[in-house]
Amino acid sequence: MVKEYSYKSDKDKVLSKHFKVGEFASIDNRNDKLTTDKILIDDNLVIMLEKLYDYLDNLYGIKSILITSGYRSLDFETSLVGGVANGQHPKGTAVDIIANKKSGDSVDSKLVCCAAETVGFNGIGYGGNYTHIDVRSNKSYFDETNGKTGISSFYSYFNIIKPNNNTNNTSSKYKVGDIVNINGVYISSDSNEKLTPRVTKGTITKVVSNAKNPYLLNDGNIGWVNDSVITNNVIYLSNASYKGTSLVDALNEIKVDSSYAYRSKLAIKNNISNYKGTGEQNIVMLNLLKKGKLIKA
Which of 17, 96, 111, 267 could form a disulfide with 272 if both were Cys (CB 3.0 to 4.6 A apart)? Predict the structure, then answer.
């Protein structure tokens, strides 16, 4: 269902875990001006964006999906080169996005197109440095850089191998954010050649289910490892990039259970007695998490 919002009164309204109303506003990037107070947003678009966020985060460790263009007022849409009056943006069913990694760079738009295909977007357009996605009823894959339409699959179009990844898989022993000690490393997730690592400790930043070496350490700066080369007796959680003051938010950011029950277990593991969820107790654990010294329960 498409809903109408006001930028003035609703811009800070939270739509989902990662998105607010204001991010979808009709802003003309040529002069950075709001073209209308009205914002149309399809509920299903937000749901699908969250699915895409989780999928990209599982693969690449993202920190945000930046909406570079969301809803467009009709006069704004028709003023654009290639703008279409009956297009998806004026209907509130489309966004153009850039996925930013925790490491600082962005996910290649070709990979974002493939990810959007995997999670089920019907409308996907490759824009070079951005990706167009929409929730139209019929499939339409296209390349905005050369005008090509009727693309059957972006995996084949870009000659990209579909990752052997299941975002619902929870069987891996270690998770993103775990700090591990290692006695060996591999150059890829499917390599058979064990190498001697230059450093013997790192943070898992990506997990590829069912791979020979499923854990990527430090965004590739160390390499790939598997359970057999991890020598941990104690597993630590880490979120050094978190700048806020909420333990719950910091745990959620690295996909760790933030419930009171699990935080109670964390408190016991980290020698915090009589845990009641107080601000003082949570700050102690948050500081340990930021330093990579919070023992995993």
Answer: 267
